[in-house]
Specification:
With 376 residues, this protein is of the alpha/beta class. The chain has one domain: Alpha-Beta Horseshoe (Leucine-rich repeat, LRR (right-handed beta-alpha superhelix)). It has 15 helices and 13 strands. Helix 7 runs parallel beside helix 8 and helix 11 runs parallel beside helix 12. It is elongated, with a radius of gyration of 24 Å. The chain starts with a helix and ends with a helix. The mean pLDDT is 86.
Length: 376
């Protein structure tokens, strides 16, 4: 039945632009109309559990795929996938997502062949998204070397813990992505993120990461690196619109953050975590008071959304004062992981300013919602 469906599909479909072949079993490239249909394919989604012979068959006709999305569900051998990447003549968008149990990783070359083959597409590639679950030392070296070739990237999304030595970070600072508009790096140290920003920030509109990951990866150097990160943003990213940021509750960091707000006037959305060594309600309220004063003084009227992780609380008095002073700007959406704002006094205050059009939304969400709908 399924084979008959694909046979009719290939006959009746006048032009095939998008194809999701995950879990497919029938070798459709043997159907009579396969060449005509598959030559026009622009977007292909597949998974590594598909037999390699299937990918070899596709390479006969599918050579002009512009968007290739691969789910690594069975990491035994990548020869078929590598060949499919290799024959593409205008690959612009590439995504790789590991989706397997660590214990199933049996590929001898890990990601080496995939990365080295992808390197040959550097002239056309402008979108790269990779989620690598299980990297070895040589993978880091190859990834860094390959990344240096992708000078035309507009979007770079990496979800992989990069164990770069100081020498490798220095090399990273010399790389230039002059067309980069979006940078998203989860599970990485802050110095690795700002090393990419340093020479590639002039067109950046989005710099995204999960703040908790950055602290966990960079605990010892967090104070210094978070300060440098803030400076790299306002020095190199004049067009920034969406920004993840985290820093300790220190006077110098608050001052630099305010400077960032004054310079980066296009900023529309913030994902913010303020880290405090003293984890008390009083400390969090103090952080909240400082933050609201900074936002009142220096935030651009373009700011529409603030996502707040832990480390910050707003008293009723400070929140009301802030709402009053926010009048005349964009209606503001605030997302928070603190359930205190569900209490009656806060709810009444928030609803009042919602009715006045000052607040668009004030929403309590869990950490996953706060991060996942913002990071990529």
């Amino acid at each position: 039945m399924q084979q008959e469906f694909y046979f009719l599909f290939m006959r009746k479909c006048p032009e095939l632009k998008y194809f999701d072949m995950k879990s497919i079993k029938h070798q459709i490239f043997y159907f009579p109309e396969a060449m005509i249909r598959l030559e026009s394919l622009c977007e292909l989604t597949c998974e590594t559990s598909t037999d390699a012979s299937y990918f070899y068959g596709l390479t006969l006709y599918c050579q002009y795929v512009q968007k290739l999305i691969i789910f690594n569900t069975d990491p035994k051998s990548y020869y078929g996938i590598v060949r499919l990447i290799e024959v593409q003549k205008n690959l612009k968008h590439f995504e790789w997502v590991d989706d397997f149990n660590d214990g199933h990783f049996t590929s001898d070359d890990h990601y080496e062949k995939v990365l080295l083959t992808l390197e040959k597409k550097a002239e056309s590639l402008n979108y790269l998204k990779v989620f690598f679950e299980y990297m070895l030392n040589r993978d880091y070296e190859i990834l860094q070397d390959v990344l240096s070739k992708f000078s035309k990237l507009k979007v770079l999304i990496i979800d992989a813990l990069l164990y770069f030595e100081d020498e490798q970070v220095d090399k990273l600072q010399m790389q230039v992505y002059s067309e980069l508009e979006l940078l998203s790096m989860n599970n990485n140290r802050i110095d690795i993120i700002y090393s990419i920003i340093e020479n590639s920030g002039s067109r950046l509109k989005e710099v995204l990461f999960r703040p908790y990951d950055a602290i966990d990866c960079d605990y010892e150097g967090f104070d210094e690196n978070s300060l440098i990160f803030i400076r790299k943003i306002y020095e190199n990213c004049p067009l920034i619109e969406y920004l993840s940021i985290t820093f300790p509750s220190l006077e110098e960091h608050f001052a630099e953050f305010e400077k960032l707000l004054k310079i980066c006037q296009n900023l529309k959305s913030l994902l913010l975590l303020i880290f405090s060594d003293i984890e008390t309600n009083e400390e969090y309220l103090k952080n909240g008071e400082i933050l609201l004063k900074i936002l009142t003084r220096s935030a651009s009227s373009n700011l529409k959304e603030i996502r707040i992780c832990n480390g910050i609380k707003f008293s009723l008095e400070n929140l009301e004062e802030f709402f009053e002073k926010w009048k005349g700007k964009h209606a503001l959406s605030i997302l928070t992981v603190d359930p205190i704002y569900l209490e009656e006094d806060y709810t009444k205050l928030i609803n009042k300013y919602k009715s006045d059009g000052i607040i668009k939304d004030f929403k309590y969400v869990n950490h996953a919602e706060l991060d996942n709908s913002y990071t990529l």
